[in-house]
UniProtKB/TrEMBL annotation:
Keywords: Aminoacyl-tRNA synthetase, ATP-binding, Coiled coil, Cytoplasm, Ligase, Magnesium, Metal-binding, Nucleotide-binding, Protein biosynthesis. It comes from the Bacteria. It is found in: Cytoplasm. Residues 68-95 form a coiled coil. This is Phenylalanine--tRNA ligase alpha subunit. InterPro entries: aa-tRNA-synth_II, aa-tRNA-synth_II/BPL/LPL, Phe-tRNA-synth_IIc_asu, Phe-tRNA_ligase_II_N, Phe_tRNA_ligase_alpha1_bac, Phenylalanyl-tRNA_Synthase, tRNA-bd_arm. PROSITE patterns: AA_TRNA_LIGASE_II.
Length: 353
C-alpha cells in the first residue's frame, strides 16, 4: 500500500530545509523528476485492482498538483526575496548630495605651448617636430656653427658620441625642413619641443627645458615682417596694450640678430620687481636667417630671405603666472600643479597657495 501522507510530509520537510535555488531544484528533481517519488507512483497502477485504479489515479494527480504548486510558490518567494536583497544593497539615495569632481587642467607649460601653437596656426604656420637625439651636423654645422666655431661654447652640450648629442635647441628642426624643401619656398613653421644643455639647476636654469622656434623663408621677407609678427605674438600672450622693442644682438645663424623685449605687463612700463625696474622684459631672440644657412640648404640667398625666432615657454609661463622657481615646473608637485585650474569662461586661473 502506498502511503500518500508520508510522501507529502517528506516533501514538506525537504521544502522547508531548502534555502537557495539549487536546493529547491534538487527538491523538484527528487519528487517530480522522471524517477522522483511522485512520478514513480504511477508505476504501481498495474498492481492496483481495477475497481480502485480510478481513486488511486486521482490521489496521485492531487499529490502531484499540490507538490507542484507549493514548489512553484517557494521558488517565487525565494526569487522575490533575492531581488529585494539586491535592491536594498544597490539602493540609490536620491537625497544625498552629488559627488564633487575636480576638473583638471593642462600643465602650465603645455598651456603656454598650446596658446602659442594656436596663434601661429591661425597665421598659416605648420607645427613641425624633430629628434631629441640629433646629429652634430644639424644641431650646429647646418646652422653656421662649424666644429671650430667659438659660439659652440655658448651651448654646453650632452654628447652621446662624437657625432650625436641631445639637441641644445629646436633649430635642427628648421635645418632639416630647409634641407627637405630642396631650395624652394615658402616655409612657415614653428618647432616646439624639449632641449638639453649642461647647466646647473637653480631657480632660473634647468638642464632640460622647452623651446619654440619659428622660421619663415620666402621671397621678399624683411625685418619689418619679423617685428610685426612678434608684436602680434606679444599682444596675444600678454595683452593688447603690450609693445615690443628690438635690441641688437648676436646669433650665429641669423644676421642681423636681435633680442626682443616686451613692455612689462605688470607695471605697464613704470618699473617693478618683475621687469627689474626697467619697464621691459626680455622674452626671445630672433633675426634674419643668415645667408650661409640658406645656401647650405640649397636656397639662393639672393632670391630668398627669411626670419627666425626662438622663445622659452618655461620663461613665458613663469612670467604669466608669477612662478619664481623654474624647478616647480618639473617636480610634479600636486600642491603646485593644483593651483592651475581651467575655466571655460576665464581660461587658466592661477590661485596662489
Amino acid at each position: 500500500m502506498v502511503n500518500f501522507e508520508e510522501i507529502k510530509q517528506s516533501f514538506l520537510s525537504a521544502l522547508d530545509a531548502a534555502t537557495d535555488m539549487k536546493q529547491l531544484q534538487d527538491v523538484r528533481v527528487k519528487f517530480l523528476g522522471k524517477k522522483g517519488h511522485v512520478s514513480t507512483l504511477m508505476q504501481h497502477m498495474r498492481e492496483i485492482p481495477n475497481e480502485e485504479k480510478k481513486a488511486y489515479g486521482q490521489k496521485v494527480n492531487a499529490l502531484r498538483t499540490e507538490v507542484t504548486e507549493q514548489l512553484e510558490t517557494a521558488i517565487k518567494e525565494l526569487e522575490e526575496r533575492l531581488l529585494q536583497e539586491k535592491l536594498e544593497k544597490e539602493t540609490l539615495d536620491v537625497s544625498l548630495p552629488g559627488r564633487m569632481f575636480t576638473q583638471g587642467g593642462l600643465h602650465p607649460i603645455d598651456r603656454i605651448i598650446t596658446d602659442i601653437e594656436d596663434f601661429f596656426l591661425g597665421l598659416g604656420y605648420e607645427v613641425r617636430e624633430g629628434y631629441e637625439v640629433e646629429t652634430d651636423y644639424f644641431n650646429f654645422e647646418a646652422l653656421n656653427l662649424p666644429k671650430t666655431h667659438p659660439a659652440r661654447d655658448m651651448q654646453d652640450s650632452f654628447y652621446i658620441s662624437d657625432e650625436t648629442l641631445l639637441r641644445t635647441h629646436t633649430s635642427p628642426v628648421q635645418a632639416r625642413v630647409l634641407n627637405q624643401a630642396d631650395g624652394k619656398g615658402p616655409i612657415k613653421i614653428i618647432c616646439p619641443g624639449k632641449v638639453y644643455r649642461r647647466d646647473s639647476d637653480d631657480a632660473t636654469h634647468s638642464h632640460q627645458f622647452t623651446q619654440i622656434e619659428g622660421l619663415v623663408v620666402d621671397k621678399n621677407i624683411h625685418l619689418s615682417d619679423l617685428k610685426g609678427t612678434l608684436e602680434l605674438l606679444a599682444k596675444a600672450l600678454f595683452g593688447d596694450e603690450r609693445e615690443i622693442r628690438l635690441r641688437p644682438s648676436y646669433f650665429p645663424f641669423t644676421e642681423p640678430s636681435v633680442e626682443v623685449d616686451v613692455s612689462c605687463f605688470k607695471c605697464g612700463g613704470a618699473g617693478c620687481n618683475v621687469c627689474k625696474q626697467s619697464g621691459w622684459i626680455e622674452i626671445l631672440g630672433a633675426g634674419m636667417v643668415h645667408p650661409n644657412v640658406l645656401e647650405m640648404a640649397g636656397f639662393d640667398s639672393k632670391e630668398y630671405s627669411g626670419f627666425a625666432f626662438g622663445l622659452g615657454p618655461d620663461r613665458i609661463a613663469m612670467l604669466t603666472y608669477g612662478i619664481e622657481d623654474i624647478r616647480h615646473l618639473y617636480t610634479n608637485d600636486l600642491r603646485f600643479l593644483e593651483q592651475f585650474k581651467y575655466s571655460e569662461d576665464r581660461g587658466v586661473v592661477h590661485e596662489s597657495l
